[in-house]
TrEMBL record:
Pathway given in the UniProt record: Amino-acid biosynthesis; L-methionine biosynthesis via de novo pathway; L-homoserine from L-aspartate: step 1/3; Amino-acid biosynthesis; L-threonine biosynthesis; L-threonine from L-aspartate: step 1/5; Amino-acid biosynthesis; L-lysine biosynthesis via DAP pathway; (S)-tetrahydrodipicolinate from L-aspartate: step 1/4
Entry-linked Pfam families: AA_kinase, ACT_9
Keywords: Amino-acid biosynthesis, ATP-binding, Kinase, Nucleotide-binding, Transferase
Catalytic activity: L-aspartate + ATP = 4-phospho-L-aspartate + ADP
UniProt-recorded name of the protein: Aspartokinase
Domain Aspartokinase ACT: 377-433
Aspartate/glutamate/uridylate kinase domain segment(s): 2-275
Family, similarity comment: Belongs to the aspartokinase family.
An example Gene Ontology molecular-function term: aspartate kinase activity
NCBIfam families registered for this protein in UniProt: asp_kinases
Signal peptide location: none
Species in which this protein is naturally found: Rufibacter sediminis
Enzyme Commission code(s) on record: 2.7.2.4
């Protein structure tokens, strides 16, 4: 069985939904994972924000706008009156559910219920479209099998068992359609896998059914060697290892959800990144295959906060670092980079939710300095096995930029630099000129 995930842009209009339908295989079983149509989740976020502020009239105005948009989608998507009637019924039901939320006290759980409606809309409308075109398909409700634990991790055993039960109901069907992003939590409330979580859904589902391949379809022809929004003449990378792709996704490559590599890697399922606007393009294949000892790509992650704990009295004491890490564990805040000296430890985080509490807890170890508006620039490749001087070439390309921290050796797949965000674009361009263009000229 193959998994095919299509993002919001890929199903962003009636025309795009028709194009997606043409990409589906007819001779092999496939589970199609859909995001909400582009713009829908942002619109639903705005509705939730207005409700949270007590602005019911504004929430209703936004809801009416979105409902009208979907009425137009129905008019554009279907040719048959019977299909249009079914589509109208779906829209009527979903927007009645949204408006029912207006009558309840606002809460995070209610907000997540509102956000779930985008995927419920796109999948139902797409399934009706398949039906109109004579293509048998089954709608698999993700809320029946996608579940997360109290730690917000996928409940793998539950997902595997309940997805199997759903599939066993339809032994003669080849095409299954389900929602990305949405799930239930340990309290059985409607929840989600955070923004971009449809990729994660596809990988989790692929692992649960032991898929032959997971395809992530977006509007970009694979993972590029640099950020094409900033750097000219970037190019898609044909092959990446799981570890390389995970590093790039975590450190800012927007094409792929950071968590989506692990489930596929654990079951050795290849992941392909493909372009719905250019389906003939090769894209990027991510697998366990060794892809050669060279520098592959660079990514950048904004919104980084640096924390320095300085203590000449405690730093070398037994258990000091463990105590520091326990603070971040207590507040469920991951650490991105870390460096140490004889009298200080510096580290970075990308989530400031609990920064005041973390700062207070760390002050018992020594003086604490906080710095924000920082960016991690991560260069990915196979540095440990590359020819001598590869890392030096990267560092030299950044010689004119103040480097706040450098992390090298923790992984054989990356070298990371912390810079002020104002230097981010310069850093990406400089690495492109100092590393990738030089290689292209050497290969020419």
């Amino acid at each position: 069985m193959k998994i095919m995930k299509f993002g919001g842009t890929s199903v962003g209009s009636a025309e795009r939904m028709g194009a997606v339908s043409q990409l589906l295989p007819t001779q092999e079983p496939v589970i199609v994972v859909l995001s909400a149509m582009s713009g829908t989740t942002n619109h639903l976020v705005q509705i939730g924000q207005q409700l949270a502020q007590g602005n019911g009239a504004q929430a209703e105005s936004l809801t009416a706008q979105l409902e009208q948009h979907y009425k137009q989608v129905i008019a554009d998507l279907y040719k048959q009156e019977a299909s249009k009637d079914k589509g109208k019924q779906v829209v009527q039901t979903v927007f009645a559910d949204i408006r029912a939320c207006f009558e309840r006290a606002f809460s995070p759980a209610l907000e997540k219920m509102i956000l779930a409606q985008g995927e419920l809309l796109s999948t139902q409308l797409f399934q009706i479209f398949q039906e109109e075109n004579g293509i048998p398909s089954v709608l698999l409700p993700a809320l029946e099998f996608m579940k997360i634990t109290p730690d917000e991790e996928p409940d793998q055993a539950f997902i595997r068992e309940n997805l199997r039960k759903q599939l066993e109901k339809y032994p003669d069907n080849q095409l299954f359609i389900t929602q990305g992003y949405i799930c239930r939590n340990a309290k059985n409330e409607v929840d989600n896998l955070k923004r971009g979580g449809s990729d994660y859904t596809a990988s989790i589902v692929g692992a649960a059914v032991k898929a032959s391949e997971i395809q992530i379809w977006t509007d970009i022809d694979g993972m590029h060697n640099n950020d094409p929004r900033i750097v000219k003449n970037t190019y898609p990378i044909a092959e990446l290892s799981f570890d390389e792709a995970a590093e790039l996704a975590y450190f800012g490559a927007k094409i792929l959800h950071p968590s989506s590599i692990l489930p596929a890697q654990q079951h050795n399922i290849p992941v392909r990144l493909l372009n719905t606007m250019q389906p003939e393009a090769q894209g990027t294949t991510i697998s366990s295959k060794k892809t050669g000892n060279k520098i592959k790509a660079v990514a950048a992650k904004d919104g980084i906060i640096a924390i320095k704990i300085k203590s000449s009295r405690m730093l070398l004491a037994y258990g000091f670092l463990r105590s520091v890490f326990e603070v971040f564990e207590r507040f469920k805040t991951p650490i991105d980079m870390i460096t140490t000296s004889e009298v200080a430890v510096s580290l970075t985080i990308d989530n400031a939710t609990h920064l005041p509490e973390i700062t207070e807890a760390l002050q018992r170890f020594g003086s604490v300095e906080i710095d924000s508006d920082l960016t991690i620039v991560c260069v990915v490749g196979d540095f440990m096995e590359d020819k001598p001087g590869a890392a030096l070439k990267v560092v030299q390309s950044l010689g004119h930029i103040p480097l706040r921290m450098i992390s090298y050796g923790g992984s054989k797949n990356n070298i990371s630099f912390l810079v002020n965000t104002v230097h981010k674009e310069d850093a990406l361009v400089s690495i492109n000129e100092g590393v990738f263009q030089e290689r292209e000229e050497a290969n020419a």
